[in-house]
Design brief:
The complex is a heterodimer. By secondary structure, chain A is an alpha/beta fold. Helix content of chain A is about 35%, strand content about 25%. In chain A, the strands form two sheets. Chain A has a six-stranded mixed beta sheet with strand order 7-8-9-3-10-11, sandwiched between helices. In chain A, strands 1, 2, 4, 5 and 6 form a five-stranded antiparallel beta sheet that branches. The N and C termini of chain A lie close together (about 10 Å). By secondary structure, chain B is mainly α. Chain B folds into two domains: about 70 residues, no CATH class; about 240 residues, MetI-like (MetI-like fold, Orthogonal Bundle), CATH 1.10.3720. In chain B, about 75% of the residues lie in helices and about 0% in strands. Chain B has 15 helices and no strands. In chain B, α6 packs parallel to α15, α10 packs across α12 and α14 runs antiparallel to α15. The longest helix of chain B has about 40 residues. The two termini of chain B are about 25 Å apart. The chains are: A alpha/beta, B mainly alpha. Chains A and B meet through α2, α4 and α7 of A and α11 and α12 of B.
Chain lengths: ~280, ~350
Amino acid sequence: MNMLEVENLWVKFPTRQGIFDAVRGVSFTLGKERLGIVGESGSGKSMTGRAILQLIRPPGIVEADYIKLEGQNLLDFSEPQMREVRGQRISMVMQDPKFSLNPVMTVGEQIMEAYLLHNNTSKAQARAKSIAMLEAVSIRDPERVMRAYPHEVSGGMGQRIMIAMMLIPDPQILIADEPTSALDVSVQRQVLDIMDALVKERGMGLIFISHDLNLVSEFCDRVLIMYAGRVVEVCDADKLHEASHPYTRGLLNSLPRLDQPRKHLEVLQRDPKWSEAPSVGGHS
Amino acid sequence: MALTDGTEQRRPRAPLAPWLKGSLLTLGSIAVTMLGLLFVTFIIGRVMPIDPVLAIVGERASQSTYDAVYEQLGLDKPLLVQFFYYLTDVMRGDFGMSLLNARPVSEDIARVFPATLELATMGVFMGIVLGVPLGVIAAVRRGSWIDQVARVVALVGYSMPIFWLGLMGLLIFYGILGWVGGPGRLDIFYEDIVPARTGMILVDSALAGDWSVFKNAFSHIILPASLLGYYSLAYISRMTRSFMLEQLSAEYVTTARVKGMSERAVIWRHAFKNIRVQLITVIALSYANLLEGSVLTEIIFSWPGIGSYITTALLSADMNAVLGGTVVVGLIFICLNIFSDLLYRVFDPRSK
């Protein structure tokens, strides 16, 4: 059963030089799986995530045949209806907790707020729930962390707080937009494992947006490779090395490997034809 | 200031609590700033080409009278000793006698300052109440008609000379329409009815429960206060707009939206909370500006405040009054800065 179906998604920005298409006809489906979206900067992967949540601010325009969440087309939703979707049904973890947490509110206030927005309960209960959630993301002293401000916690901890905050209303889908790119390599794995465990345990769908091909191939079930706003290739993560598109091949060949050390790494040669070819459907 | 300084040195050398250390540091910096201010005013008083003795004894006094007064004023002592005397006098609130009316300058200032305080407070209040929401809305609806209107309003506020606006205001609202009271703080009929407890007529009349005086005072203050309010609105709304624009593009604002918050909550609960600290600085600056005495406004509206007091004193070479007024204005500036520093600590958790 597909939780999310995206068909022919376009994100456009009017500029002085005409309309710029950040995302060009992307289609995919998401079930209870971990879908990776990989691409270089500017390939439209983040825009795809934000377009689903309708977080593209004017003058940006989102167009699609449909974006269906469990059969309901989100494009028909009003703004108040979308607010019900955000957080409660689809949530998003962003890149850098240093910027994505509000610097002048305590961690506790921010997590409780996420819960109280979608649950009509008392503050005491929201508090208890928040502490439990912090424990679930392996934070040792949740009572103390609740009172802390974002600048008082480390990056890895900040990202776990972010995950706790985004999962507390029990969404079905989590969009993780480069969730580990701003973290130290030493804590990346830990954060990913926590996120993975929670997503599995709750039977959620995960869209994992990253530029890190290795990470995505290890971590996800299926991978979309985006280039210049299009999906150029879709493959199962464990078959990534069999990818056929020259862009994917180029990316793979430009990565250093421990098991096959090479004198020279390939430089990616971009072919303008790639960006003109139609999107590949990312349906499972 | 001297008192707090003294206790500071007598404290035992035990380790201090951080907040105590912080406040002692603040007090120390205030004392140093004050000392610097007094030193500057002292030097100004000495280098001005006005002979303080002549100003007192007059030009036709004999040499012996001149010498006696010269000695009396302590001008024969070394400069450093003179400064010390000046310092001790000021500490006791003694700014010397005014040459114009032979009354202590401190009494004069105590009389004129409440008028300015009343006017400036009302002005800055209007500036905040209208300017902050206008700035926020202009930032949120960037490029919309309301943003354009806010831009024009601010531009006019920045560029229109205040004396012209003041005169036009008087002409239209007082002269032609008769909606407001004219120059001065009260109509002559209402003067000296309520006892002066604070010196601010609106407050005094409210305390006395005399609403007819209150109404009259209000009709007099509303025009000059609106004028000053307009200028601080122009400044505050522009600054609010640019602070807000910066915050609205921050990632935590997206986080708040992802949570499913309404746009209004995103703006006021998340973004606005982050501009409070900057806003305090802007408001304090704006308030300080008005408190220094808006000379032109006070003159046009015959407002007996500190601005017109210092101006009159300066024009009649009444140096004691000028220096006294300057010290008071400086003191206000320092106090407002301290106050905004303290508010920083309340509003910005990172400063703790």
